[in-house]
Design brief:
By secondary structure, this protein is an alpha/beta fold. The chain folds into 2 domains: 199 residues, Isopropylmalate Dehydrogenase (3-Layer(aba) Sandwich), CATH 3.40.718.10; 140 residues, Isopropylmalate Dehydrogenase (3-Layer(aba) Sandwich). The chain is built from 12 helices and 12 strands. Strands 2-1-3-12-11-4-5-10-8-9 form a 10-stranded mixed beta sheet, sandwiched between helices. A two-stranded antiparallel ribbon has the order 6-7. The protein is globular, with a radius of gyration of 20 Å.
Length: 360
């Protein structure tokens, strides 16, 4: 098949890890007889430096016209002034909104050979296979009113509003139930309904959606209890569905189950348009340019791209199997092992070697 993929390397280690994912996609195209057109564009801090804004209309249009988007990471100390009116992260939020990406999928599956890399006891990680479905277009990141104002006595007040419409909740819970039906048929809806009105609407709406899926075991859980269960009973979860901010926090917490945030991919999906795929980690400016970043999250994000946007399931499985085989053979980047650690490029090369073996 032919596919056009827009690549947004971004800032910090973003260009380094997306380079690995691009090599994987090119190898898949050559090995399986596809034609992938990879086109790089600016987004984030690098776009601010070039265009004074983190996301141009032209780049957004290119992303919407593509078959899929591969993203690296955005941000860094250079653009980290709290008083700045333009920040790299604004480009990411605008991209999600502009592409109508309402759900972020983050799978959490610790590799058996990396259990010791997690700070949790290995017995707590046995059988962990969690899919977090995070709502992307609503909540406190987009709610109005927002901003700052000053009173006559010189005090400054800041306001952020958490806003949800019922349709935003309906579609993401519907997706969670659909995905759970292909897994272990259990959905945990996460909210803060004992305090927040938006969470009470979330719970009420989620109940209505769940009623149309009687085969799904559906439960509600407060976000603070969920945070505790993620580190004490992670294997008790199948699919977690939650709002924008709660999902952002919980998936970063869940990354410790895999041993490193560098191992975790994500997919942002909408309703029929191109999806966007990225590792969950940030730009890691402290190691940017050193060539030591873990490319696995970005490479597994490329596998999700193959599965969800291009409908190439065998190719996606081949990439995921190659990553598993590489880890099983003891290959590690510095976030997973200090001694004899591989560089970003070396780890990518090891995965490509095993990907070629799987194809044969």
């Amino acid at each position: 098949m032919k596919a056009r993929i827009v690549v947004l390397p971004g800032d910090g280690i973003g260009p380094e890890v997306t380079a690995g994912a691009q090599q994987i996609l090119e190898h898949v195209a050559n090995s399986f007889g596809h034609e992938f057109q990879l086109e790089e564009r600016l987004m984030g801090g690098c776009s601010i430096d070039r265009h004074s804004i983190p996301l141009t209309e032209e780049t957004l249009a290119d992303c919407n016209a593509a078959d899929a988007v591969l993203l690296g990471a955005v941000g860094g100390p250079k653009w980290d002034d709290p008083a700045a009116k333009v920040r790299p992260e604004m480009g990411l939020l605008a991209l999600r909104k502009g592409m109508c990406l309402f759900a972020n999928l983050r799978p959490v599956r610790p590799h058996p050979d990396l259990l010791q890399a997690s700070p949790l006891k290995s017995e707590r990680l046995s059988g962990v296979d969690v899919l977090v479905v995070r709502e992307l277009t609503g909540g406190i990141y987009f709610g109005e009113p927002r901003g700052r104002d000053s009173s006559v006595d010189g005090r400054t007040r800041a306001v952020d509003s958490m806003v949800y419409w019922d349709y935003e909740i309906e579609r993401v819970v519907e997706l969670a139930c659909t995905l759970a039906a292909e897994r272990r048929c259990k959905v945990t809806s996460v909210d803060k309904a004992n305090v927040l009105e938006t969470s009470r609407l979330w719970r009420q709406t989620a109940e209505k959606v769940a009623a149309a899926h009687p085969q799904i075991e559906f439960e509600h859980q407060l976000v603070d209890t969920t945070a505790m269960r993620l580190v004490t009973q992670p294997a008790s979860f199948d699919v977690l569905v939650t709002g924008n901010m709660f999902g952002d926090i919980l998936t970063d917490e869940a990354s410790v189950l895999t041993g490193s945030m560098g191992n975790m991919p994500s997919a942002s999906l909408g309703d029929g348009g191109p999806g966007m795929y990225e590792p969950i980690h940030g730009s890691a400016p402290d190691i940017a340019g050193d060539g030591i970043a873990n490319p696995i999250g970005s490479i597994l994000a490329a596998a999700m791209l193959l599965r969800h946007s291009l409908n190439l399931e065998p190719e996606a499985v081949a990439v995921e199997t190659a990553v598993m085989d590489t880890l099983e053979d003891g290959c590690r980047t510095i976030d997973l092992r200090r001694e004899n650690a591989l560089s970003t490029q070396q780890m990518t090369a090891e995965i490509i070697t095993r990907l070629g073996a799987n194809k044969r």
